[in-house]
Fold:
Amino acid sequence: MHVHTPLFVLLGVIASGAAAVPSAPALIAQEQPDNAIEFDNSNGIGELPRHIPDTCPIDTISCQHTGVDPCCSPRNGLLVLAQQWDTRWGPSDAFTVHGLWPDTCEGSQLPGGGCDRHRAYTNVSHIIEESTDTALYDDMNKYWPSNKGDNNWFWTHEWVKHGTCVTTLHPRCYDTDSYISQQEVAEYFRSILDLREKYNLFKALNASGIVPTEQMPGRRPKNTYSLQQFKQAIRDAWGVDPNVKCRGSRLQEVWLWFKVRGRDSYYPVEPWGKDTCHRISYQRKST
Ligand SMILES: *[C@@H]1O[C@H](CO)[C@@H](O)[C@H](O)[C@H]1NC(C)=O
Ligand SMILES: *[C@@H]1O[C@H](CO)[C@@H](O)[C@H](O)[C@H]1NC(C)=O
Structure:
């Protein structure tokens, strides 16, 4: 299934202040990890001292302040929430999640192997099942199914490639006494399910009268929407444009872009990617 290939083309936008100010010493330190050969942590923060973020400024904005401890503000501070519409999977009145993908502040993707090999777990489904968040596993199955039928593979891939790049979730950002091994994995997925609920695409589209149309097997899609209708509906809901992704005319994904205030308060920003739809076939699910 959709490996996160599509290019993150910069549309000429450079986040203000992203690279203007020299790095604070703490940020320089991570550029020379002493185990850099076996473990490229250049986008993780494993080499920094522990920082319990009880003194984090609450109004820091990702990509707009430098020198802030990466436990307090995500260093890879421009993120994409990708939700998918696959007529074979998930509730008939909900988009399902593909992932939340941190990019660099310049809009580039991070390394395909993720940012922390030490936390490249292979059993993410188990970690979720065993977590203290007892509703998480059911919620994941409902709102984050793999459209290949292998949820452990899918969730593991998303965690390793993207979750490990969320610097605020590094174990060094937790209090040693209360940290439960791998708790950040469950927290990563829960926070994204919460985002999906908050940025509920089905509801936003529905509020503008955009509802799934009847499936017409074997025919060219008839009842299509325009890209502009889709974008306007989402702009009406949240004040920003999405990126809308299709295969042919068939709707596949809607991407919303975010920056972060404080550690984890996501707010939508204008998109940095490309649309791949013209007419959009948004078909009823068969589930
Ligand atoms: C997942 O695998 C890790 C080792 O990679 C192990 O430490 C951990 O206990 C496993 N967790 C579960 C819930 O199976
Ligand atoms: C969709 O919109 C209709 C009418 O505007 C409303 O009655 C219904 O509750 C909405 N459904 C959802 C899931 O938001």
About this structure: The first helix runs from residue 25 to 29. Residues 1-40 have pLDDT under 50 and may be disordered. Residues 121, 123, 126-127, 130 surround 2-acetamido-2-deoxy-beta-D-glucopyranose (ligand 1) (CB under 6 Å).
